[in-house]
Amino acid sequence: MEKISVSxxxxxxxxxxxxxxxxxxxxxxxxxxxYLYQVYMGRVMxxxxxxxxxxxxxxxxxxxxxxxxxxxxxxxxxxxxxxxGKQIGFFLTxxxxxxxxxxxxxxxxxxxxxxxxxxxxxxxxxxPILILAPILLMTxxxxxxxGALRGVKRFPALGFVNISSAVFxxxxxxxxxxxxxxxxxxxxxxxxxMLAALAISLIFLKPYFKPxxxxxxxxxxxxxYSYSLPVMLAMFAFSVPANLDVVLAKxxxxxxxxxxxxxASVLGKIIFFFPAGIYAVMFPMIAERHARGEDTxxxxxxxxxxxxxxxGPVALAYLLFPQLxxxxxxxxxxxxxxxxxxxxxxxxxxxxxxxxxxxxxxIKNLGYVALFxxxxxxxxxxxxxxxxxxxxxxxxLLAVNTLILFVSLIYTWRWKNGIxxxxxx
Length: 425
Known about the structure:
Structural class: mainly alpha
Low-confidence stretches: 420-425
Helix content: over 70%
Largest sheet: none
Number of domains: 1
Radius of gyration: 21 Å
Number of helices: 15
Number of strands: 0
């Protein structure tokens, strides 16, 4: 009983731990459905068709990560408004309208270039690419609603939205694949999940659309855009180590090898997604404390420790039991066995880097953004040059992700100490 009471007091006192636990639980549940979806598609499609699906899904995810910039920006502005006692209805309405127009434009451009993209990826037809068009439209709208929920610290609601998206994706995706729609059906399941999540999040936000003071003449959306641009660069760089390698594998290797690489990446991303609940909670906390001039190092240290505690055991499991790839995807993926452990370790190092990146975004340190983007460019260059085999690509990914983490920690330590010393003087 004493141990239970100590644990309860810890979670009640530690806001980061308490809310991270909520988001972590939601991430685990949503992740379970997401991976059931991925594993089912891998088993039903086989390595060749799964390689096509993996490449298209990676393209969607990279664009989605860029659009998540809007969610990060929305969180920061909503946190600021609520901290100042302002209503957020005017911001929600204005940003949703603007991003709907941007999403429509991106979707139309994507449809216009679908033929060339199908040829580049050596696809038999462009139908799966056309399915991505409505997905991309919602990709630019959804982050505003989810970012607003995060900004007002409605973490249980946000967790429910994420779980709903995963459930609808699995149900509709599996049903359409069973009906014979193949890759197109699998992607249509993604569209169904996103539409459900958007609708549910807007229901949760309904009370915020009716502010007491709907007009805020001192706010201009240009400030939202100016903050979003460097964040977008960071988010694009953030998407590369976890997604571009899958697209490059589809381009450089045979369909079978690309499918094997995709299976290893799917397992590795379990590690990568674990800290999502932590930085979702960490970001608004650091932004608020930084705005008030309070110390933020403690939250960063705890966030890194919690991430290591969650992701580390999974990376260790991949090192000790790489045969998981066969058990999960089937014997046709046995050749991916040597890829599992190094890919998992690469994602473990990158999951820690993601915490550092979100920390600097929360305190608006754009110097780190430039550093992070530069290191990511180096990674893309090396992956484009050293790709004689899927094993070599994984080795490059591991080496560069290790370097990025090391440089990020050194930079953060020296930068923060410099700020503290300046304050002392």
